[in-house]
Specification:
13 strands, globular, binds adenosine-5'-triphosphate, binds magnesium ion
Length: 253
């Protein structure tokens, strides 16, 4: 018999705690998720949402991030990772089958999409900052990405003019609140620390972005990050989150 144990998630009181609880309520009956046991307000303007600790309860074994690291270290077969990602895709397909509909982006959970693409939002802050640099391979000097606007890259004979503000503006136009997408009720943030392995398939954690989300967004976050970019939670780029969130914290392989 496993010890009952709790995972306490502390959030700023109000909107973020509401989003977490409402997100959990929308997905919990449809996807595997920890039991939500209690929500309490504290005196310091925070709220605590208490969940079943899925590792202490024995429901889950590994976070996806740890499963990848185990495979990188040769301590688990790589096929375990591939099988798990297949199962996550099956979970998205099941969500689409039961709750799928085409709807306006404005009806979807805003935090990672409509909020970030707003003028002055995170996309502007992250990509137009002089701190986002590429390293000049000849001089070793950091070059702010935005200063490359006006240059043309030629890739396999195809000329690609680079204009960062224009790229953002076009994304902003495409992701306007009236634009319509295939959507479903999903967890909304399918990254390596938010998915855990269990005997009966993926268990979802972290419900701040759960609710009606676009399927292209979910698929991009899961598959583009993992398969094309090589992961979001990699120690080289996210060392603090890696150390804080993963359970095994294996060194980079
Ligand atoms: N129910 C749970 N049982 C056990 N561990 C959990 C549970 N929920 C979350 N965790 C662990 O805590 C980590 C952080 O929780 P969560 O993802 O909900 O918060 P977050 O806001 O993304 O946190 P952070 O901003 O610190 O990354 C998860 O990646 C996971 O390792
Ligand atoms: Mg998380």
């Amino acid at each position: 018999m496993n010890q009952p144990a709790y995972f306490h998630k502390v959030l700023p009181a109000g909107a973020r705690a509401d989003a977490e609880e409402l997100g959990w309520l929308q997905v919990a009956g449809r996807l595997q998720a920890p039991a939500l046991l209690e929500r309490t307000r504290r005196d310091d303007h925070t709220e605590v949402i208490t969940y079943e600790d899925v590792f202490a309860s024995g429901r889950c074994h590994h976070l996806l991030g740890d499963l990848i690291a185990l495979a990188d270290h040769g301590r688990a077969p790589a096929s375990n990772v591939a099988d798990f990602i297949d199962a996550v895709c099956d979970s998205l397909i099941a969500s689409a089958a039961t709750t799928g509909r085409t709807t306006a982006l404005g009806n979807c959970v805003p935090a990672l999409y409509t909020d970030r693409i707003r003028p002055g939002g995170r996309v502007d802050q992250w990509y137009l900052t002089p701190n986002l640099t590429l390293t000049d391979t000849q001089t070793g000097e950091p070059i702010p990405l935005r200063t490359l606007t006006g240059y043309t890259a030629t890739l396999n004979g195809t000329r690609l003019p680079f204009d960062l503000p224009d790229i953002i503006e076009r994304a902003r136009h495409a992701l306007n609140p009236d634009s319509r997408f295939a959507t479903a009720i999903t967890q909304g943030d399918p990254t390596e620390p938010n998915l855990a392995t269990s005997a009966v398939g993926p268990c979802w954690l972290d419900f701040e972005h759960a609710g009606r989300n676009t399927l292209p967004g979910e698929i991009a976050n899961l598959l583009w990050y993992l398969l094309a970019l090589g992961g979001w939670l990699v120690p080289a780029y996210q060392s603090d989150v890696y150390a804080r969130t993963l359970r095994l914290r294996l060194p980079p392989a």
